[in-house]
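Please describe what follows:
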Amino acid sequence: MHIGTTSITGDYDYMEKLFSVNHQFKDTYIKTRHHKHSSATITGVIIVPISVYEEEGEDQKNYKKMYLERHKNWDGEWESSIIFRLYINPLLVQCLTINELHQHYCDLIIAQLNDPNFKLPKNFDAKIFKKDFHEIVNDFRTKEMPFTFKK
């Protein structure tokens, strides 16, 4: 199982902090095959920070929470990825330091892992996945962010 990242953000200079955290996560864990008992149909995990609208709840309305996304791979075969949509208000991104944003990013992933609505297919060992991914996020929490940004 591969780990990747992408983002959906507004066009603000300070989003560079969020991009930096997101890219650091991807660069650190992209080659990690963290799930030993992966399902044939779930092949990846994608972290997607969403930070577009300043109005509370607008990102959630426009970008619905989902935990699985089906798509075709390069060979045209159907597969699914586990999706973590991290809703972060742009005003919060603006006022947090990169280290505070880094910790908040990890908090949001852990909150989704702990969410009772975070359901995965019955043929997938969600308990082991959640344990393994907790370890990855907690490891990432200890990493230094390579860039320093001003508030």
User: Anything to note?
Assistant: The longest strand covers residues 42-51. Residues 110 and 134 are 7 Å apart (CA to CA). The chain has a mean pLDDT of 87.
